[in-house]
Amino acid sequence: MKIRRPARGTIGEPITALIDVVFFLLVFFMLIGRMDATAPFEVSPPEAQTGQDLPAGGVTLSVSDEGDLALDGTLLALNVLETALRHRHEGNSDIRLRINAHQDAELRTVLPLVSLAEEIGFDDIVFIVTPGERASP
Fold first, then answer.
1. For residue 5, what is the DSSP state?
2. How many other CB atoms are found less than 10 A from the CB of residue 43?
3. Which residues pair with 69 in a beta bridge?
4. Once rounded to an integer, what is the mean pLDDT over residues 2-29?
5. Interior CA angle at 109 toward 38 and 126, to 5°?
6. d(CA 97, CA 95)
7. pTM score, whole prediction
8. Strand-strand pairing, 59-63 and 69-71
9. Please, how many CA atoms are within 13 Å of residue 129, restricted to the half-sphere of its CB?
10. In terms of CB atoms within 10 Å, which of 34, 77, 97, 127 comes out highest?
11. Can you tell me the distance from the alpha carbon of 92 to that of 4, in angstroms, rounded to the nearest whole number?
């Protein structure tokens, strides 16, 4: 008695070649791609100085969480703020501007105020911050 072997089916394309191509594409894109946007030069972020006394003198500009403005405790509209700052800066060009912004104030509200102060001529602009808890080593 002779036992017949079943006929072999057609062999499909080997998947090994496809895996190799995918691996090479993965390596290629990892080598040429950037994982993050890096500057073409060295950037050293500023260090916060906490625990120091608030600098005395100058003008204090307060910003509420809703964007309301107050200059030395007096509520002001944004269109009046520039005139008031210019008036304060005229008498003393070395005057300091302290910005006391609420922690929930939007950055798009605070940054234009810094630009305005620089345009007027304030050389010393200080942000008032509350120090957070220090992480234990």
1. P
2. 6
3. 63, 76
4. 78
5. 75
6. 7
7. 0.58
8. antiparallel
9. 11
10. 97
11. 108
